[in-house]
Inverse folding.
């Protein structure tokens, strides 16, 4: 790559839209963000992307990487993120490629988190780990033997739709009793009538226990050693949430090969999503 090469990175979240110019070593050179509109966000997103691109003419933008909630078709050809009701089978990759004139690569936001934290963050010394996003929804990216697992349609690792109860609580996916139906920001607001940031200590601890329960199943299945958790909801709950998750994991996971697993917060804070989006593009350029 040339000395001034960089990647355009885009993060499409439930509460914010962000775009950045990211160097090949993961440094964020320039970034901007706006709240996610309640309705179809395309106009706002396209304006944001063009603004960041126009402000970065001194860099040779070689590709665009996009992190977006799922589910989606492989490569983001069509996305149907649960946190954006106006997008169903939305042709995201094609739209952004036409907008920017760049080769564009799209993947799930939780898989982007796995790429960033495995590259520069809390999982950089681990070859086998899970990266979880607990925000508006709940998603995850799974890394085995230092390789991100994609799955048949690119949606592997979706821990948010593991069944963790038997209450008949509906989930936005159409199923019931999914982890996301309990611990996501949307679920907490439906349960309490208040934003997740104002959840009681008891509810935070319950949700930590549910995450620990889900992780116990994943650890037994995948033989991982670390779970890295990001997302505004989980990070806002802080230590009580993580302590409850680790206690529950230890109580439920007694098989020997899972010992030593830790559930920890991300290290890259609000940079994770954009670094991960850049990593999505760089992954396709190796």
């Amino acid at each position: 790559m040339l000395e001034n090469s960089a990647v355009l990175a885009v993060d499409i979240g439930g509460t914010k839209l962000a775009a950045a110019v990211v160097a090949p070593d993961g440094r964020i050179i320039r970034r901007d963000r706006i709240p996610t509109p309640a309705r179809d966000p395309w106009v706002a997103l396209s304006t944001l992307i063009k603004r960041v691109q126009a402000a970065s003419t001194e860099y040779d933008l070689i590709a665009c990487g996009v992190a977006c909630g799922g589910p989606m078709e492989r490569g983001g050809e069509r996305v149907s993120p649960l946190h954006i009701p106006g997008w169903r089978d939305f042709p995201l990759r094609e739209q952004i490629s036409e907008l920017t004139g760049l080769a564009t690569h799209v993947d799930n936001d939780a898989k982007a988190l796995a790429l960033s934290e495995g590259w520069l963050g809390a999982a950089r010394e681990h070859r086998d780990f899970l990266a979880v996003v607990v925000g508006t929804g709940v998603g995850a990216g799974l890394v085995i033997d230092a390789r991100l697992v994609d799955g048949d349609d690119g949606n592997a690792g979706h821990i948010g739709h593991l069944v963790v109860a038997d209450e008949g609580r509906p989930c936005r996916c159409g199923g019931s009793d999914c982890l996301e139906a309990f611990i996501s920001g949307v679920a907490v607001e439906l349960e309490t009538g208040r934003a997740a940031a104002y959840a009681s200590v008891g509810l935070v601890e319950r949700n930590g226990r549910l995450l620990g329960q889900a992780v116990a199943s994943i650890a037994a299945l995948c033989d991982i050693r670390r779970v890295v958790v990001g997302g505004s909801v989980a990070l806002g709950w802080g230590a009580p949430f993580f302590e409850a998750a680790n206690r529950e994991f230890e109580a439920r996971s007694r098989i020997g090969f899972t010992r030593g697993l830790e559930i920890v917060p991300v290290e890259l804070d609000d940079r994770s999503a954009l670094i991960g989006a850049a990593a999505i593009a760089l992954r396709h350029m190796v």
Q: What stands out?
A: The radius of gyration is 18 Å. The longest strand covers residues 60-68. The mean pLDDT is 94.
